[in-house]
Amino acid sequence: MKYLSFLLNRICLSLFGLAFLMACGEDERAPLLVPTTYNSPNFVTNTQAENTVLTELGNLVTAMNNAETGTTDPIPYPANLKAITRAAYATKIEGWIPELVKGAGQSFDLENAPTGDGGVLGTRLLDENGLELEQMIEKGSFGAALFHHALDILSQPVSEADIDRLVRILGTDASFDPNTAKFSALYAKRRSDNLAQTGLFYDLKQNLLVAKAALAAGPEYQPEFNAALTEFLLNWEKSNFATVIFYCFAAKSGFQNSNQRPGCPRQCPPCLCRRSRFYGRLERALF
Q1: Which of 49, 123, 255, 265 is 20 to 30 A removed from 4 (C-alpha atoms)?
Q2: In angstroms, what is the C-alpha Rg of the chain?
Q3: Spatial contact of 155 and 6, defined as CB atoms under 8 Å apart
């Protein structure tokens, strides 16, 4: 509902802005000048909270990766990451983390599954049902935490500092360097042509460049501002579902090829958690 409310508000504001411009005459407004690079001298200061969240998520992923190679101490659910995560998904993660820890240091028992605590199959740590909880936690947090936080930012009047926060929570920085992209930005990069610099990663960059330029240019550019932020959210979604399609196709191809079947369970959790994490449709989740 939060996402739909945002879209409706932006559409209404854009229509109002267009009506105002038509009444006043387009001739009175200069074309919006959009830079090709993202400039923000206060970017680091403006994005401290988002950087903390991404650091926590990165540390959590590292701890879960370490659990694949041996027993591990209890893994805490980082407080700032949890605070921005949808409550229903945070509850799931709180249950998944100790389940993941219980399976560490054990081998997955194919003969007796789904009994026991799970374990490592090949190089992947699975629960007793064959689900890779690390993927459910990490990839699910891209939407239930990071995308959800972006919606929270956009639920109130947006400042230029808030545009910086959107850049950071996506998983990139003011450089928009695809080589350093992480989290959601990394998967948008993977769905893009990085030689031609086209595709979803570059569309997301352009959306935020336009939003920042329109905000700085004044209220008469409100239609461009609203359209850019709406497109930003839609392109974030597109990168998510493009990745779902990629993993589904990889799993399908793997199951059809006997040499690739051991890797197929790896492809399934990202599909499940990515499909269920947006818009709070957790009641329709497949896990």
Answers
A1: 49
A2: 21
A3: yes
